[in-house]
Write a structure and sequence with these properties.
With 329 residues, this protein is an alpha+beta fold. Helix content is 23%, strand content 28%. Strands 1, 2, 3, 4, 5, 6, 7, 8 and 9 form a nine-stranded mixed β-sheet that branches. The N terminus and C terminus are likely disordered.
Protein backbone atom coordinates (compact mmCIF):
# COMPACT_ATOMS: atom_id res chain seq x y z
CA UNK A 1 0.00 0.00 0.00
CA UNK A 2 1.41 3.36 -1.01
CA UNK A 3 1.76 5.90 1.80
CA UNK A 4 0.04 9.23 1.23
CA UNK A 5 2.45 12.00 0.23
CA UNK A 6 1.91 15.74 0.07
CA UNK A 7 1.76 17.53 -3.24
CA UNK A 8 5.07 19.38 -3.61
CA UNK A 9 3.31 22.43 -5.09
CA UNK A 10 0.84 23.92 -2.60
CA UNK A 11 -1.57 26.49 -3.95
CA UNK A 12 -3.03 29.52 -2.19
CA UNK A 13 -6.69 29.19 -1.31
CA UNK A 14 -9.38 29.65 1.31
CA UNK A 15 -10.17 26.61 3.43
CA UNK A 16 -13.69 26.27 4.84
CA UNK A 17 -14.16 23.81 7.69
CA UNK A 18 -17.52 22.70 9.10
CA UNK A 19 -17.71 21.12 12.55
CA UNK A 20 -21.03 19.47 13.40
CA UNK A 21 -22.05 19.34 17.07
CA UNK A 22 -22.08 15.76 18.45
CA UNK A 23 -21.53 14.33 14.96
CA UNK A 24 -18.86 11.87 16.09
CA UNK A 25 -21.31 10.19 18.42
CA UNK A 26 -23.91 10.03 15.69
CA UNK A 27 -21.67 8.43 13.10
CA UNK A 28 -19.75 5.88 15.15
CA UNK A 29 -22.81 4.65 16.98
CA UNK A 30 -22.42 6.20 20.42
CA UNK A 31 -25.93 7.49 19.86
CA UNK A 32 -28.31 4.95 18.36
CA UNK A 33 -30.73 7.27 16.60
CA UNK A 34 -31.50 6.62 12.94
CA UNK A 35 -33.37 9.89 12.62
CA UNK A 36 -30.42 11.93 13.77
CA UNK A 37 -28.07 9.97 11.52
CA UNK A 38 -30.33 10.85 8.61
CA UNK A 39 -30.29 14.49 9.70
CA UNK A 40 -26.50 14.44 9.65
CA UNK A 41 -26.41 12.96 6.16
CA UNK A 42 -28.92 15.56 4.95
CA UNK A 43 -26.91 18.35 6.55
CA UNK A 44 -23.71 17.24 4.81
CA UNK A 45 -25.55 17.07 1.48
CA UNK A 46 -27.04 20.56 1.83
CA UNK A 47 -23.74 22.01 3.03
CA UNK A 48 -21.89 20.49 0.10
CA UNK A 49 -24.50 21.91 -2.29
CA UNK A 50 -24.07 25.42 -0.85
CA UNK A 51 -20.28 25.18 -1.12
CA UNK A 52 -20.36 23.99 -4.73
CA UNK A 53 -23.00 26.59 -5.68
CA UNK A 54 -20.60 29.31 -4.53
CA UNK A 55 -17.66 27.87 -6.47
CA UNK A 56 -15.97 25.75 -3.79
CA UNK A 57 -14.89 22.12 -3.79
CA UNK A 58 -15.52 19.64 -1.00
CA UNK A 59 -12.17 17.97 -0.34
CA UNK A 60 -12.74 15.81 2.70
CA UNK A 61 -15.70 14.31 4.53
CA UNK A 62 -15.12 13.48 8.20
CA UNK A 63 -17.18 11.85 10.91
CA UNK A 64 -17.73 15.28 12.46
CA UNK A 65 -18.02 17.53 9.42
CA UNK A 66 -16.20 18.38 6.22
CA UNK A 67 -13.42 20.48 4.69
CA UNK A 68 -13.73 22.46 1.44
CA UNK A 69 -11.53 24.83 -0.50
CA UNK A 70 -12.03 27.96 -2.63
CA UNK A 71 -9.70 29.90 -4.87
CA UNK A 72 -8.06 32.81 -3.03
CA UNK A 73 -9.79 35.39 -5.24
CA UNK A 74 -13.12 33.80 -4.26
CA UNK A 75 -12.76 34.55 -0.55
CA UNK A 76 -16.07 36.45 -0.56
CA UNK A 77 -17.79 33.44 -2.12
CA UNK A 78 -16.37 31.22 0.62
CA UNK A 79 -17.78 33.57 3.26
CA UNK A 80 -21.14 33.78 1.49
CA UNK A 81 -21.35 29.99 1.28
CA UNK A 82 -20.76 29.78 5.05
CA UNK A 83 -23.52 32.36 5.59
CA UNK A 84 -25.88 30.40 3.34
CA UNK A 85 -25.23 27.22 5.34
CA UNK A 86 -25.86 28.92 8.68
CA UNK A 87 -29.00 30.67 7.43
CA UNK A 88 -30.39 27.34 6.31
CA UNK A 89 -29.49 25.73 9.62
CA UNK A 90 -31.17 28.52 11.57
CA UNK A 91 -34.44 27.67 9.83
CA UNK A 92 -33.89 23.94 10.18
CA UNK A 93 -33.10 24.07 13.90
CA UNK A 94 -36.79 24.31 14.65
CA UNK A 95 -36.80 20.64 13.62
CA UNK A 96 -33.86 19.90 15.98
CA UNK A 97 -31.29 19.61 13.22
CA UNK A 98 -27.63 19.18 14.25
CA UNK A 99 -25.88 22.51 14.87
CA UNK A 100 -22.54 23.52 13.50
CA UNK A 101 -19.66 25.98 13.61
CA UNK A 102 -17.72 27.15 10.57
CA UNK A 103 -14.12 28.35 10.32
CA UNK A 104 -12.30 29.85 7.33
CA UNK A 105 -8.58 30.46 6.81
CA UNK A 106 -6.56 31.65 3.81
CA UNK A 107 -3.06 30.58 2.79
CA UNK A 108 -1.11 27.74 1.15
CA UNK A 109 -2.94 24.43 0.90
CA UNK A 110 -1.29 21.08 0.19
CA UNK A 111 -3.16 17.95 -0.90
CA UNK A 112 -2.25 14.39 -0.08
CA UNK A 113 -1.98 11.96 -2.92
CA UNK A 114 -3.82 9.98 -4.09
CA UNK A 115 -7.09 11.07 -2.44
CA UNK A 116 -6.49 14.85 -2.45
CA UNK A 117 -7.06 15.31 1.31
CA UNK A 118 -6.01 18.85 2.35
CA UNK A 119 -3.18 19.33 4.85
CA UNK A 120 -1.08 22.15 6.23
CA UNK A 121 -1.17 25.14 8.56
CA UNK A 122 -4.05 26.81 6.70
CA UNK A 123 -6.20 23.69 7.07
CA UNK A 124 -5.31 23.49 10.77
CA UNK A 125 -6.34 27.13 11.37
CA UNK A 126 -9.70 26.66 9.68
CA UNK A 127 -10.29 23.45 11.63
CA UNK A 128 -9.44 25.07 14.96
CA UNK A 129 -11.73 28.04 14.29
CA UNK A 130 -14.58 25.68 13.39
CA UNK A 131 -14.02 23.59 16.52
CA UNK A 132 -14.05 26.68 18.75
CA UNK A 133 -17.00 28.36 17.01
CA UNK A 134 -20.30 28.42 18.85
CA UNK A 135 -23.45 27.01 17.20
CA UNK A 136 -24.23 29.19 14.19
CA UNK A 137 -20.94 31.12 14.22
CA UNK A 138 -18.75 31.84 11.18
CA UNK A 139 -15.17 32.65 12.25
CA UNK A 140 -12.64 33.82 9.65
CA UNK A 141 -8.94 34.50 10.01
CA UNK A 142 -7.53 37.89 9.11
CA UNK A 143 -5.97 36.64 5.85
CA UNK A 144 -9.41 35.60 4.60
CA UNK A 145 -10.85 39.02 5.46
CA UNK A 146 -7.92 40.73 3.73
CA UNK A 147 -8.51 38.67 0.58
CA UNK A 148 -12.27 39.31 0.35
CA UNK A 149 -14.04 42.27 -1.30
CA UNK A 150 -16.21 42.94 1.72
CA UNK A 151 -18.84 44.87 -0.22
CA UNK A 152 -19.80 41.56 -1.89
CA UNK A 153 -20.63 39.79 1.38
CA UNK A 154 -24.38 39.35 1.80
CA UNK A 155 -26.83 37.88 4.28
CA UNK A 156 -30.60 38.09 4.52
CA UNK A 157 -30.53 39.95 7.84
CA UNK A 158 -27.79 42.27 6.63
CA UNK A 159 -29.63 43.14 3.42
CA UNK A 160 -32.88 43.73 5.30
CA UNK A 161 -31.15 46.08 7.72
CA UNK A 162 -29.09 47.95 5.14
CA UNK A 163 -25.87 46.73 6.73
CA UNK A 164 -22.60 48.25 5.47
CA UNK A 165 -19.65 46.12 4.40
CA UNK A 166 -17.82 46.70 7.68
CA UNK A 167 -21.04 45.91 9.55
CA UNK A 168 -20.51 42.24 8.68
CA UNK A 169 -17.32 42.12 10.78
CA UNK A 170 -17.05 41.83 14.54
CA UNK A 171 -14.21 43.45 16.43
CA UNK A 172 -10.88 41.68 15.77
CA UNK A 173 -10.09 39.01 18.36
CA UNK A 174 -7.34 36.58 19.27
CA UNK A 175 -7.98 32.87 19.72
CA UNK A 176 -5.13 31.41 21.81
CA UNK A 177 -3.84 27.87 21.98
CA UNK A 178 -4.37 26.78 18.39
CA UNK A 179 -2.23 23.83 17.25
CA UNK A 180 0.26 26.36 15.81
CA UNK A 181 -0.05 29.81 17.38
CA UNK A 182 -2.73 32.30 18.43
CA UNK A 183 -5.09 33.13 15.56
CA UNK A 184 -6.32 36.64 14.83
CA UNK A 185 -9.89 36.33 13.62
CA UNK A 186 -13.20 38.09 12.99
CA UNK A 187 -16.72 36.75 13.34
CA UNK A 188 -18.98 37.31 10.35
CA UNK A 189 -22.11 39.05 11.65
CA UNK A 190 -24.55 37.36 9.27
CA UNK A 191 -27.56 37.53 11.61
CA UNK A 192 -28.80 40.21 14.00
CA UNK A 193 -26.21 39.27 16.61
CA UNK A 194 -22.91 37.41 16.98
CA UNK A 195 -22.63 33.82 18.20
CA UNK A 196 -19.09 33.89 19.54
CA UNK A 197 -17.10 30.92 20.78
CA UNK A 198 -18.29 27.72 22.41
CA UNK A 199 -18.98 28.22 26.14
CA UNK A 200 -15.91 26.17 27.09
CA UNK A 201 -13.68 27.40 24.26
CA UNK A 202 -12.12 30.36 26.00
CA UNK A 203 -11.40 28.55 29.24
CA UNK A 204 -9.93 25.49 27.55
CA UNK A 205 -7.91 27.58 25.10
CA UNK A 206 -6.67 29.84 27.86
CA UNK A 207 -5.61 26.87 29.97
CA UNK A 208 -3.77 25.31 27.07
CA UNK A 209 -2.02 28.59 26.29
CA UNK A 210 -1.49 29.42 29.97
CA UNK A 211 -3.18 32.74 29.27
CA UNK A 212 -5.52 34.70 31.47
CA UNK A 213 -6.16 37.90 29.54
CA UNK A 214 -9.11 38.64 27.27
CA UNK A 215 -8.78 37.57 23.66
CA UNK A 216 -10.28 40.83 22.38
CA UNK A 217 -7.51 43.03 21.00
CA UNK A 218 -7.26 46.73 20.18
CA UNK A 219 -7.75 48.13 16.70
CA UNK A 220 -4.89 46.76 14.57
CA UNK A 221 -1.92 48.99 13.89
CA UNK A 222 1.03 49.04 11.54
CA UNK A 223 2.91 46.64 13.77
CA UNK A 224 0.34 43.87 13.27
CA UNK A 225 0.65 43.67 9.49
CA UNK A 226 -1.16 46.88 8.57
CA UNK A 227 0.26 49.84 6.70
CA UNK A 228 -0.67 53.49 6.60
CA UNK A 229 -0.63 55.59 3.45
CA UNK A 230 -2.74 57.92 1.33
CA UNK A 231 -4.79 57.55 -1.84
CA UNK A 232 -2.81 59.21 -4.63
CA UNK A 233 -5.32 58.70 -7.44
CA UNK A 234 -8.57 56.96 -8.36
CA UNK A 235 -10.06 56.16 -11.76
CA UNK A 236 -13.83 56.20 -11.25
CA UNK A 237 -14.51 54.61 -14.65
CA UNK A 238 -12.22 51.63 -14.10
CA UNK A 239 -12.67 51.61 -10.33
CA UNK A 240 -9.01 51.35 -9.41
CA UNK A 241 -6.26 53.58 -8.08
CA UNK A 242 -2.90 53.93 -6.38
CA UNK A 243 -1.97 54.22 -2.72
CA UNK A 244 1.35 55.58 -1.49
CA UNK A 245 2.44 53.90 1.75
CA UNK A 246 4.22 55.89 4.45
CA UNK A 247 7.47 54.18 3.48
CA UNK A 248 7.04 55.34 -0.13
CA UNK A 249 5.98 52.02 -1.70
CA UNK A 250 3.25 52.32 -4.35
CA UNK A 251 0.30 49.91 -4.01
CA UNK A 252 -2.45 49.02 -6.47
CA UNK A 253 -6.06 49.05 -5.23
CA UNK A 254 -9.44 48.51 -6.86
CA UNK A 255 -13.01 48.36 -5.61
CA UNK A 256 -12.70 44.68 -4.66
CA UNK A 257 -10.25 45.58 -1.92
CA UNK A 258 -12.15 48.41 -0.22
CA UNK A 259 -13.39 47.53 3.26
CA UNK A 260 -16.10 50.18 3.20
CA UNK A 261 -18.92 50.98 0.81
CA UNK A 262 -17.45 54.33 -0.30
CA UNK A 263 -14.24 55.07 -2.18
CA UNK A 264 -11.90 57.18 0.00
CA UNK A 265 -11.43 60.70 -1.37
CA UNK A 266 -8.18 61.29 -3.24
CA UNK A 267 -5.59 62.49 -0.74
CA UNK A 268 -7.24 60.74 2.23
CA UNK A 269 -5.15 58.83 4.74
CA UNK A 270 -5.92 55.10 4.65
CA UNK A 271 -5.01 51.92 6.49
CA UNK A 272 -4.59 48.65 4.59
CA UNK A 273 -3.02 45.22 4.55
CA UNK A 274 -0.46 44.42 1.81
CA UNK A 275 -1.12 41.50 -0.53
CA UNK A 276 1.01 40.03 -3.31
CA UNK A 277 0.74 41.61 -6.75
CA UNK A 278 -1.92 40.37 -9.15
CA UNK A 279 0.70 40.14 -11.90
CA UNK A 280 4.22 38.93 -11.18
CA UNK A 281 6.68 41.81 -11.00
CA UNK A 282 4.04 44.52 -10.66
CA UNK A 283 2.94 46.62 -7.69
CA UNK A 284 1.68 44.87 -4.59
CA UNK A 285 -2.01 45.15 -3.74
CA UNK A 286 -3.53 47.16 -0.88
CA UNK A 287 -6.36 45.09 0.65
CA UNK A 288 -9.05 45.86 3.25
CA UNK A 289 -8.55 49.59 2.66
CA UNK A 290 -10.15 51.81 5.32
CA UNK A 291 -10.17 55.61 5.48
CA UNK A 292 -8.64 56.81 8.75
CA UNK A 293 -8.74 60.56 8.08
CA UNK A 294 -8.29 63.23 5.46
CA UNK A 295 -4.61 63.53 4.71
CA UNK A 296 -4.32 67.13 5.77
CA UNK A 297 -5.23 66.21 9.31
CA UNK A 298 -3.14 63.07 9.59
CA UNK A 299 0.53 62.27 9.25
CA UNK A 300 2.91 64.65 7.45
CA UNK A 301 2.34 64.89 3.72
CA UNK A 302 4.55 62.85 1.44
CA UNK A 303 6.54 65.13 -0.85
CA UNK A 304 4.15 64.52 -3.79
CA UNK A 305 0.90 64.80 -1.82
CA UNK A 306 -1.53 67.55 -2.81
CA UNK A 307 1.17 69.39 -4.75
CA UNK A 308 0.71 67.72 -8.12
CA UNK A 309 -2.16 66.89 -10.39
CA UNK A 310 -4.70 64.60 -8.70
CA UNK A 311 -6.85 64.22 -11.78
CA UNK A 312 -8.19 60.71 -12.07
CA UNK A 313 -5.99 58.23 -13.88
CA UNK A 314 -7.08 57.30 -17.38
CA UNK A 315 -5.24 54.05 -17.92
CA UNK A 316 -1.81 54.47 -16.38
CA UNK A 317 -2.58 51.66 -13.94
CA UNK A 318 -2.18 48.83 -16.41
CA UNK A 319 1.35 48.31 -15.12
CA UNK A 320 0.11 48.05 -11.54
CA UNK A 321 -1.72 44.75 -12.03
CA UNK A 322 -5.19 45.76 -13.12
CA UNK A 323 -6.17 42.42 -14.66
CA UNK A 324 -9.39 41.53 -12.81
CA UNK A 325 -11.71 38.61 -12.31
CA UNK A 326 -15.42 39.01 -12.70
CA UNK A 327 -15.85 40.13 -9.07
CA UNK A 328 -19.50 39.08 -9.17
CA UNK A 329 -21.22 36.70 -6.83
Amino acid sequence: MTSPIADASPSAGVVLDVAVASAVGLVVGLVDDDRRLQQFATLIGLTTEAIERHGGERLQLRSDGLTACFELDSAHRAINSAIAVQERQKLANAARQPRLGIGLAAGPVRRLEPDGAPVGATVDRARWLAMMANDGAVLVDIDTVSSAPLHQIRSAAGAAGGRTALGYLSEPCWLPASPQAPIRYYEIVWDVTTRGLRPDALSSAARAADASSSITVPEPDVGSGWKLGWLRSWNSERQHGLIVADDGELFYVDDRFLAGDEVPPVGAEVRFRPRPSLIEGKNRVAAMVVTVGEGAGGSPEPPQARTGDHAQDTGALTYAGSTRGDGEE
